[in-house]
Amino acid sequence: MTQPESVPPDEYPRTDDLPSDGVPVRSAATLLLLDDRPDLHVLTLRRTTRSTFVADHTLFPGGALDPDDGDARWPDLVRGWTPASADDALGTGPGALAFWIAAVRETIEEVGIAVGLGGEVVAHRHDLDSGRSRLSDLVGNDGLDLSGVHPVARWVTPTGGLKRYDTFFFVAAAPLGAEPVADGTEAVAVDWMRPTEALERWQAGELTMISPTISMLQCLEGFGTTAEALAAAAVANGAPRRRARILDESSDLVRFPGDPGYEAVGTREALGWVWIPSHEGGFGTLEP
């Protein structure tokens, strides 16, 4: 049955209600780091060819939630979001704050950049990745400032693969002067790219991407600066979730409500919802 083009955050599927093929759906988080160089760039990484999921793909820092991401101490350690405001923003039930924590932690581990924390935490990135250290133990007296980290999308891996993830995408400004360093394990290369440049390189066959990554680049390319993108993300937290449609998982632009061909023959509903509009107010880059 065709689903509505957009729904409020408390009406889209819970993880337990998603289409199932017997493969467990793990909760995950991804962080889009933005920086003006001098115009808006987004940090991308290339996944190792040895990865069992999206090997050799270009994407953004992120990964599955760890037990420590949901530690009971976090509500007292963070600023900017509360458990209640996080639950309301994501609409998936209690415990949503863990997605913010995971997005920050994975970015530290994979590219060596700490958002909302002192840079000294980066020295522990490999211990965090291996489980020898927990981010909740490293936060310090200043806590973790999540006020600049905003959710903008949710994508769920379709059925039929070896691994499935229910992933929330966040945007944040890169700390001043921060430079990424790939961990060499999961991420083998990092690059700051203009969203339009990344899409052009993907369309030229230089980069391999999947629909969630493509959709985020489509939304970001309408912004000229980090401030513009973050302002749009901040006011979109309670906005309706726009259901994406796709024609092909990795070789076609994502279609959003209002785009030409949104319901064209051959397109199908994706398990993807996006709520950050572009600078012009639309949701994609497709032209009539």
Write the topology of this structure:
Layout: E1 6-7, E2 25-36, E3 40-47, E4 58-59, E5 62-64, H1 74-77, E6 78-79, H2 83-90, H3 97-111, H4 125-130, H5 135-138, E7 144-145, E8 150-156, E9 164-173, E10 187-193, H6 195-203, H7 211-220, H8 226-235, E11 241-246, E12 268-274
Parallel strand pairs: 2-9, 6-7
Antiparallel strand pairs: 1-11, 2-3, 2-5, 3-4, 3-10, 8-9, 8-12, 11-12
Helix pairs in contact: 6-7
Give me a quick take on this structure.
Keywords: Hydrolase, Magnesium, Manganese, Metal-binding. With 288 residues, the chain is of the alpha+beta class. 23% of the residues lie in helices and 24% in strands.
List keywords for this structure.
288 residues, alpha+beta, Nucleoside Triphosphate Pyrophosphohydrolase, two-stranded parallel sheet, 8 helices, 24% strand, globular, disordered C terminus
Mean pLDDT: 90
Morphology call: globular
User: Helix count?
Assistant: 8
Level-1 CATH class name of one domain: Alpha Beta
The largest sheet, given as strand count, sense and whether it forms a barrel, is: 10 strands, mixed
CATH architecture assignment of one domain = Alpha-Beta Complex
CATH fold naming of one domain: Nucleoside Triphosphate Pyrophosphohydrolase
Query: In CATH, what is the homologous superfamily of one domain?
Result: Nucleoside Triphosphate Pyrophosphohydrolase
Q: Can you write the helix and strand succession as a string?
A: EEEEEHEHHHHEEEEHHHEE
Binned, the helix content reads: 10-25%
Structural class: alpha+beta
Low-confidence stretches: 279-288
- Rg, alpha carbons: 18 Å
**What's the total count of β strands?**
12
What fraction strand?
Answer: 15-25%
C-alpha termini separation: 27 Å
